[in-house]
Amino acid sequence: MKTPASKSLGKPRRASKSRRPGRPSGDATDQRERLLDAALHHYTSHGVTAASLRGIAEAAGVTPAMISYYFGGKAALFDAVIEERLLPVVGELRGHLETLGDDAGALIDGFVRGMHAAVERHPWLPTLWVREVLSEGGALRELLVTRIAEQIPRRLAEAFAHAQQQGRLNADLDPRLLVVSLIGLTLFPLAAAPLWHQIFASEDLDSAALQRHTQALLERGLEVDHVR
């Protein structure tokens, strides 16, 4: 599937004398957005460490100098991708969960639905998560601990612990590991979807099927309905 980053990009227009210095024109702003998309696609495909300005520039159809013009260098480009592409997705999910109150069941269901919705809008998320968070030396590990953990994982764990204290959640569960389980039941299977399609020779194991299965598993576990 073609992405905006795959389109050939032209040179940005020169700033007119009437425009204030440092304020990009509309075309320049679009150019910058396309470069961010190209970098994100390159990180997902090749990894952050292996990514180079030259490789990103080639993917975007520009010269490395163009990326330096807009971002100043490789580190600044990576920081911009985090701030303007990844963290807004985290914010979307956090905002969705905040509307659900402190009901454990609603939060669990909301996390599953919210994660699938996020991946539908941002299909790069599962692959980037596996490559840069789970892999040893991943470039996003520190970000998870220092900035993302407080926004979603720790808040969910606190809500689950409170629900246990109120007798509204299975006391045998560890609230922290319940968060880990939710991530394991959503992001990981989505990242491995092409593999499951090959193993089971079936294309019907799509995101909707996975969401239904995950919700049924979390709501009813392995219980069997007996017909009387």
Would you give an account of this structure?
- The protein is an all-alpha fold.
- It has two domains: 23-72, Homeodomain-like (Arc Repressor Mutant, subunit A); 84-228, Tetracycline Repressor, domain 2, CATH 1.10.357.
- The protein is built from twelve helices and no strands.
- The protein has helices at 26-46, 53-60, 64-71, 74-98, 104-121, 125-134, 141-151, 153-165, 175-184, 187-191, 193-199, 207-220.
- It is globular and about 60 Å long.
- The model is unreliable at 1-26 (pLDDT under 50).
Produce a short descriptive summary.
The protein is mainly alpha-helical and about 230 residues long. It is about 65% helix and about 0% strand.
Write the H/E string, N to C. Answer: HHHHHHHHHHHH
CATH classification, class level of the largest domain:
Mainly Alpha
Looking at CATH, which topology of the largest domain would you report?
A: Tetracycline Repressor, domain 2
Strand content: under 5%
Q: Number of helical segments?
A: 12
Q: How many domains is the backbone divided into?
A: 2
Estimate the helix proportion, in percent.
Answer: 55-70%
Gross geometry: globular
InterPro entries: DNA-bd_HTH_TetR-type_CS, Homeodomain-like_sf, HTH-type_TetR-like_transc_reg, HTH_TetR, NicS_C, Tet_transcr_reg_TetR-rel_C_sf
Keywords: DNA-binding, Membrane, Transcription, Transcription regulation, Transmembrane, Transmembrane helix
Protein name: TetR/AcrR family transcriptional regulator
Pfam families: TetR_C_29, TetR_N
